[in-house]
From TrEMBL:
It comes from Ruegeria marisflavi. It is a multi-pass membrane protein. InterPro entries: DUF318, UPF0718. Keywords: Cell membrane, Membrane, Transmembrane, Transmembrane helix. Its main location: membrane. This is Permease. Pfam families: ArsP_1. It is found in: Cell membrane.
Amino acid sequence: MADLAQPTVGSFRRVRAALKTPWALSAALLVAVAVLDPQNLSTVSVFAVRALGHTAQYILFAVLLLAYLKATGAEVLVARAFEGRETRMILLAALFGGLAPFCSCEVIPFVAGLLALGAPLSAVMAFWLSSPLIDPPTLLITAGALGWPFAIGKAVAAVGLGLFGGFVVRALSRGGALADPLRVYKRSGCCGCGTPKPVAPVWRFWTEADRIAVFRQEFLSNALFLLKWLALAYVIEALLVQYVPAEVIAGLVGGEGLLPIVIAALVGMPAYLNSYVAPPLLAGLTEQGMTVGAAMAFMVAGAVSSVPAMAAVWSLVKPRVFALYLGLGITGAVIAGVLFQMI
């Protein structure tokens, strides 16, 4: 009996896990439209398919670029930002934060190693604040959904937030308020990753079989990851455009002034999904009346407060540093929204 029960339990778990995937959620939303509002099923489906097709060119370039960076080992260049004078470290950490092809688990041992080796918290904070906001795939997907002005604005906001946080932490550290920020850290076997090894990137990666295998694996895994999340995002965007009245969005985060931007930043922190889903959703919201400043504040605040970003910070630093991280994130989001709205 036990032998018969084990496959049944395993099959049930696999089915349950499959139902939680973005593919299943996308299908469930479309089935719901087919049942509840069948006359608009084609409208919603065509909208989502066309939007995904428009972004496909950006997805292809993004996954090729990310696979290339991984295969060459280019992420080791980020470690060089944490050498030299503190001001230089803050500047380079904020810049490289938007270029580092780290997964959320790789950031943890990387930064833990830097802090353990004595890298200043100011430079680490600059990297931490800018890194979740932008990376090459996010930049391209944001451009495809919201246009290049918004994508470039987000990249500038990422670097600006990193600089803002880095120099604020530097000023506070001089008074001794942030001494000994690191928790007791025990490295886990997450992804088999660790701090980058001090080796130079191999730009001609195709000369080594192991690096070719890394390129192939990264390309396929990232392409699947982006496709499934963007498919869900565009289905949700189609539903927003079709069913959410424009006056509701305009009433909450439309209009001029500071209040819509602050509301968008506060809503963005708990509501955020990930950097690939957000641009299509914001495209739908801006069509319904959301201002560009509020959209920028929503995206910046949400990226800083994403689950992987917060988990990385909480696992490494003490509560006061974690609170400072969130405070800098929400303040920087509001500032970014105001400035982007003005421009």
